[in-house]
Amino acid sequence: MRNQGPLETGLEFVQLSAQMTMMLAEANMVIFMRVCGLAGFWNVSASEKSRMVREKTHAAQASARAAGRAMAAGESPTAIAQAALDPVRRRTKSNVLRLARRGPGMGPR
After folding, report:
1. For the chain, which residues make up each domain, given as ranges?
2. Tell me, what DSSP letter sits at residue 42?
3. Cβ-Cβ contacts under 8 Å for 21 (sequence gap 6 or more)
4. Could you give the C-alpha distances from 54 to 9, 33, 37, 81, 103, in angstroms and in order?
5. Does the model's pTM come out above 0.85?
């Protein structure tokens, strides 16, 4: 692990906090669109129910692998947390874009 000054460590923490905030906001949007989809008010694919269960396993595994690699490389705790967050953030971002494109409406498309 390289020696970091307080400014560099602080900036890492701010970046991690911003990414975490975005992931949480995106996750809330995804939950909203999926619940609306289950109620029939948002156009979702027929496979959305199984997809939302399956993707959590994949994201958790990718997150654990990324964090493990960062730890093995001797990264800082903030860098390890960022490595663990990246796969989850990619998934939430892609889900928001995918579901938003489908838009509100009645029934599966």
Report:
1. 7-38+48-102
2. B
3. none
4. 35, 17, 17, 23, 22
5. no
| H helix runs in 73-107, sequence order | 77-102
What is the C-alpha separation between 9 and 1, in angstroms, rounded?
13
Token representation of residue 16: 């991690």
- Whats the size of the chain, residue-wise? 109
Identify whether the C-beta of residue 43 lies closer than 8 Å to the C-beta of residue 104.
Answer: yes
Burial of 41 (0-12, 13-18, 19+ CB in 10 A): middle
Block means of pLDDT (10 residues each) for the chain, 109 residues, are 63 92 97 93 91 92 97 92 96 95 74
What is d(CA 37, CA 73) in angstroms, rounded to the nearest whole number?
42
